[in-house]
Amino acid sequence: MRQILRPAILAAALVAASVAVAQTAAPAKVADTSKGKALVDAKGMTLYTFDRDTAGKSACNGQCAQNWPPLMAAANASASGDWSVVTRDDGFKQWAYKGKPLYLWVKDTKPGEVTGDGVNNVWRVAMP
């Protein structure tokens, strides 16, 4: 009986470990763009920062957030290292890197595009 339980216990431990790793994985990755290395979402879409945001607070709401969708975080997301989670004015959670909330740009249509860089001189490609 003991021999049969060992593989089952090992399998359960591996599943638990993989879930823990998945929960602590960074919400974005680094990719090469025409602007150099940039943070991108899981689909490879470039992420941006907004100069009008203050430390840990998004200033992009309403119409702004329709054009610049926030990189949303799950309500129970846990952050570590350079990653943090900020609460938006609407109560939803958003990922931030080094305290700067992150956004996508609706006019970027393909992974690696950086058409949002410099828009209104307040939007910047998020650099690692």
From TrEMBL:
Coiled coil: none annotated. The keyword Transmembrane helix does not apply. Residues 1-22 form the signal peptide. Pfam families: Lipoprotein_15 (PF03640). InterPro entries: Lipoprotein_repeat, UCP029720. The keyword Signal applies. It comes from the Bacteria. Keywords: Signal. This is Lipoprotein with Yx(FWY)xxD motif. It comes from Microvirga arabica.
